[in-house]
User: Fold this.
Amino acid sequence: MVWIGFIAGCLASFNIGKVPVALPLMSIDLKLDLFNASALVSVFSLLSASAGLMLAILGLRVGGIRSVLIGLACCAVAGIAGALSQSYIFLLLTRVLEGFGWLLISVSMPGLLATISNEHDRPLVFGLWGAFVPVGMMAALLVAPFLLQHFDWRSLWISSGVACFVWMVVFHFGFKAQQPGRQTQAFTFFDLKGALAYPHVWSMAVCFFAYSGQFIVVTGFLPTLLYERFSTDIGSAAVLSAVVVSANAFGNVAAGVLRRQGIHFAMLLIVAQFIMGVAALLLYSGLLSMHASIIAAVIVCGVGGLIPGTLFGASAEFAQKPLHAFLTVGLLMQFAGLGQLVSPMLVGKTVEWLGQWHDVVWVNFGLMVVGIAVVLVLYRRLPQHESPP
Assistant:
């Protein structure tokens, strides 16, 4: 059942990766300007930054299994409806529905995975779950060129919608024995207050903010960097960026393996933040060749993958009650969305004010320091008996 849940997350994340690839054809078909195109790309981050915790609460009230089924249904309906859209506004509304479905699955699945996995395998299970976004995006990058070459962008939307519908049926029968009705949990305001009262919850959220900020700075601006600094053509830059993103999935799985071997969570987070930060500094320093820059970007994404894999697992390990894990993941997703929104703006302003790409190192350096600092705070303020090995 772990794989059924993981594939559900990957199919939802497929919707993140399909838009950037299809955007040139969509822009011609629907006559989109740059602002319209940016809105279609960023809607998932906006939803995550504004509604992560709210949807975690919804998941508690509805139940984890029902939440995932609703999320898959939203993605299926939005995919088919989006393929039929003839206007930008209608397409944007379907993107919001897809984002709602993706976020609902993102905050609900970790709680389900905690209930169906044993304590020994749980770190590996959460490491695997942390890879659902890069794997889903990579799937879109692999499937999209074939569909766009032989059909049009609407075929990509139909394919994702049909796949989500089929997997909704698979998920329903796969988790039928879990009896969705029992997954609902009584929830009050005091539960929310109690969950968010623990300092380690906020430290984990800020750590995720720092990670997502560095990740989006590298993956979001890498094609532009390769094009401007090394005169790489756009097509090659896109392929190289896809390779870089794929490394993140391996980092997430490695986090699960290392945690199951007993490596301390704080050690993983600090080492990952440091190596990720140093590699990003080298990438934007202007001192590296093109090949070395690609290697640095792979290190950023690969080693950085240790962070979500570790934090998703820690959300269950630190939870005082089962519902606290739901709320913690919701807060993590909210801060991840904030990092993806704030960091590109900081990069843009830094380049605008200082004038050079290598000045972006200050943004990366700041995020690295913040990430390491909050992990140290997390480790110091967490009672030893609550700290997982």
